[in-house]
Design a protein that fits this description.
Shape: globular
Structural class: mainly alpha
Number of helices: 37
Radius of gyration: 32 Å
Strand content: 5-15%
């Protein structure tokens, strides 16, 4: 290693730890090295942070919005561990302690100030308004009143151009476009590209935006004809064309081949794999071989890239990380060993010495023998693992194993071959071995125990429930958690080194959130944790973070009291066994978000809430959208409680029948869902339930097999008090959902849920927002379609009848019956009474 480099480049973790402990004595007990490796995955980030703090250590305590974002991330991580003397940087514009994700004039600013700065710097090119909404195809800023592209729907406009050449219906083309480009800006860019180059889907895809290839594949999957997936113009491969070279798009391989530099170490012209500390280019091989990027492994003692650390802080490379420790029978040293289940374990050094060297028959060099040919001739590692046509499937892959007659098979074919199954060293069953000579059923308990064991090798009593719940899974699923996937294994190791009981609250701060939610669902399905309302839990955490933004402490406590005793109290009163819906949570978020904005606006003007007048409220309401009317409930509460003067805001109006689709469009969607067998069965069934029975996604996802009453001849669905007769072919779709009710998620045997629509987590129903996105992808807008169906049903059936059939309360049924019949009879009756 180059000794001329500064110390913060060679030992960044040590330098950062010394600086942090020198400015804040409360960090003396924190393992800063482990924290840095957890927060900053790449050592280059830690080197940059060490250099910045070495230059100006006051960034940790001054609150100045300077330096990289890593300074703020370090302070937040240390404060979470108990640091008290560090100060988060404040926004360079508004002065608030928020995540500073943007940069302006050399100072870091929050996202809100960055958005405001962008809007003010881009006035509309037509009216001069600073309500920035994007840029037109000439690059001129546009406001929301004059959006880019005008009032057209770019997806429909582009679908009209593609429908004829591809042979697809316009609705199918629109669904493909919206599945690829979800926002209006992306759809406009595709439309403008097709206007400039009409041949994008017939061979000229390299001229268009990166989404062109995804759009071509989406159209082909929906049955389009005459569409070609864009190929790289330089190598003629069908690959992702995301990079530009001389004005045209190309694949990553061709871009790297044409952007080569001379490596500073080997002096060969190769693609750049990284750069040295002083900015010189190096290739991939030299970068991996550079000792500057390596650490000494505590397992094998070699200078390698550190993959993980044990509970006692020992750094291990990728080779030693998953190898059990034992005492070598050859050298007597205690360390990572192979063959630990045999009578003669062997450490890695002794294993390497056992490998003989010979002349490789493939390259002719004197190399260590790693493989042999079918006739027993030696091969080095490179020659023995070259991709070759598999003797089983014929595809070109690396040979995973060979049969007794010398046939080389890929990994997939070898897994299916009888020779891959051998007797298990523990139970003797002939199966495919996965771990140290053990089958999956015998390896899963040992691997899971090792993943959950603490530094002393023992399992904490609090983790017995976690161990039992994961052990109830199929063996292959248990191995995925304990051995195969690094993110899953890291989560289990975090639980192993922790303290206290495993509860929902102890799992909430762990990361990544998606893996934590998956583990939580497994523990609930395995009865290691009680079931809770996850929508309500996420809402409570969101409310705590949002209310903390209120600058005035008195008003912050007031808003905390209001949220606990008004909206959250109403949601907590949901009947046992029922969970709040996504719509209910979004309504509370809308109310609290706008209330916080009002209090921030009053604080910015130096106006306490107790002294605010109705004129102040009206001024704030007039400066924004109608969503600000959601503060009405909070203002009425403060007025009744004496925390403010009598204040109010307009009531939030209901859209009801104004937000519907035309009946002919509704029946066209029904015909498509009935006849299009290429759509997924859950999407077809959910869409028909919305269009025919006016069921919202929040109710559809809660349907179970108990709601489906199948007599063999007819199928009835219990949506309300009285089951409703299901017409064909929806009855066959429901039967298919009942028969295959086990979803993609892995759950303990014997605990299969009865949901008709499964989610991605074990034992959980599909999230209503996910179902809504899937319906929009096939052209069904859930709310407008449900309203249109309600209008149709309410116009044909009395309110009492359809409330009992479809599960709506009587008041809602009466309202829709009034909407469907118009206000004429009510007006005539009222006029007669007068």
């Amino acid at each position: 290693m180059d000794e001329s480099l500064p110390r913060f480049a060679i030992e960044p973790e040590t330098v950062i730890g010394e600086i942090v402990r020198s400015v804040d004595s409360s960090c003396a007990t924190i393992d800063i090295t482990a924290l840095l490796e957890e927060v900053f995955c790449y050592r280059s980030q830690r080197r940059t942070l060490a250099e910045v703090l070495h230059t100006d250590a006051e960034l940790l305590t001054s609150g100045r919005p300077e330096g990289p974002r890593t300074v703020e991330r370090l302070i937040r991580a240390l404060q979470a561990k108990g640091a008290t003397g560090l100060v988060l940087p404040r926004c360079g514009k508004c002065g608030r302690q928020r995540p500073l994700t943007a940069l302006a004039d050399g100072r870091r600013i929050c996202r809100s100030c960055a958005n405001r700065r962008q809007v003010q710097a881009n006035p509309c090119g037509i009216c001069g308004s600073i309500d920035y909404a994007g840029r037109d195809r000439d690059g001129t800023p546009r406001c929301r009143a004059h959006p880019p592209g005008g009032d057209i729907d770019p997806a429909v406009e582009l679908a009209g151009r593609l429908a004829g050449p591809t042979g697809l219906p316009i609705e199918t083309a629109v669904a493909a476009i919206r599945a690829v480009a979800r926002n209006r800006g992306g759809q406009l860019r595709l439309l403008w590209a097709f206007e400039d180059h009409p041949d994008l889907l017939s061979g000229g895809g390299a001229k268009g935006p990166p989404k062109t290839g995804a759009l071509a594949r989406a159209l082909i999957n929906r049955g389009a004809t005459g569409v070609q997936v864009p190929r790289c113009p330089l190598c003629d491969r069908a690959a992702e064309l995301r990079l530009l070279h001389q004005g045209q798009r190309c694949c990553g391989r061709c871009w790297l081949a044409r952007h080569r530099e001379v490596c500073a170490d080997c002096e060969r012209l190769l693609p750049v794999g990284g750069r040295t500390f002083d900015g010189k280019p190096v290739c991939v091989g030299c970068r991996q071989a550079d000792p500057f990027n390596r650490r000494c492994c505590d397992g094998c003692g070699q200078l390698r890239v550190v993959k993980a650390r044990t509970g006692d802080g020992r750094a291990l490379c990728s080779t030693c990380h998953d190898i059990p420790r034992a005492r070598c029978a050859t050298c007597g040293e205690l360390g990572p060993c192979r063959f630990v289940t045999s009578e003669a374990p062997r450490c890695l050094s002794c294993c390497a010495k056992q490998r003989k060297e010979a002349i490789c028959v493939g390259c002719g060099n004197w190399r260590r023998v790693n493989n042999r040919t079918a006739t027993g001739e030696p091969l080095c590692g490179n020659c023995g693992k070259k991709p070759k046509p598999c003797d089983g499937c014929g595809k070109v892959y690396r040979v995973s194993a060979r049969t007794a007659d010398g046939r080389g098979l890929c990994q997939t074919c070898w897994a299916k071959h009888p020779a891959a199954r051998q007797p298990c060293a523990a139970c003797g069953s002939v199966e495919r071995l996965y771990h140290h000579g053990l089958c999956a059923a015998c390896a899963a308990p040992r691997s899971l125990h090792r993943a959950l064991a603490g530094p002393n090798g023992r399992l904490r009593p609090e983790l017995e429930g976690v161990y039992t719940a994961l052990l109830r899974l199929p063996p292959h699923a248990s191995l995925r958690w304990s051995n195969r996937r690094p993110t899953h294994r890291a989560l289990l190791q975090a639980l192993a080194v922790g303290t206290g009981l495993i509860t929902h609250e102890s799992l909430d701060p762990l990361a990544p959130a998606q893996i934590v939610d998956h583990l939580r669902a497994l523990l609930v399905a395995g009865e290691a944790l009680p079931e809770r309302d996850e929508q309500l839990a996420r809402l409570e955490r969101w409310v705590t973070r949002t209310v903390a933004r209120v600058p005035n402490p008195t008003e912050r406590r007031l808003l905390t009291h209001y949220t606990a005793w008004q909206p959250l109290r109403r949601l907590r009163r949901v009947r046992p066994g029922r969970h709040i819906t996504v719509g209910q949570g979004d309504s509370v978020r809308m109310e609290i978000r706008n209330t916080v904005r009002l209090l921030e606006w009053l604080h910015g003007g130096g106006i306490p809430l107790a002294e605010a007048t109705q004129d102040h409220i009206d001024t704030w309401l007039s400066q924004g959208s109608t969503q600000r009317h959601w503060v009405r409930a909070f203002l009425l509460w403060t007025s009744r409680s004496g925390h403010s003067r009598p204040l109010t805001a307009p009531a939030h109006g209901s859209e009801l029948s104004f937000n519907v689709i035309a009946q002919d469009h509704r029946w066209a969607l029904v015909r498509r869902l009935v006849t299009d067998h290429q759509l997924a069965v859950p999407d077809r069934a959910a869409g028909l339930l919305v269009l025919l029975f006016a069921q919202p996604p929040s109710r559809i996802t809660r349907l179970t097999t108990d709601h489906v009453l199948d007599t063999g001849e007819h199928v009835r669905l219990r949506l309300g008090r009285e089951p409703v007769l299901v017409p064909a072919p929806l009855d066959d779709l429901l039967r298919e959902l009942v028969n295959r009710r086990r979803g993609r998620s892995t759950i303990p045997p014997g605990r299969e849920p009865t949901w008709l629509f499964h989610g991605i987590y074990p034992g959980r129903a599909m999230d209503p927002s996910s179902l809504s996105r899937r319906l929009r992808a096939i052209g069904v807008q859930p709310r407008q379609a449900r309203n249109a169906s309600l209008m149709d049903v309410a116009s044909e059936l009395p309110a009492y009848v359809f409330s009992r059939l479809l599960g709506y309360c009587q008041k809602t049924a009466d309202n829709w019956n009034t909407e469907a019949s118009g206000f004429g009879p009510d007006y005539a009756a009222d006029l007669t009474r007068r």
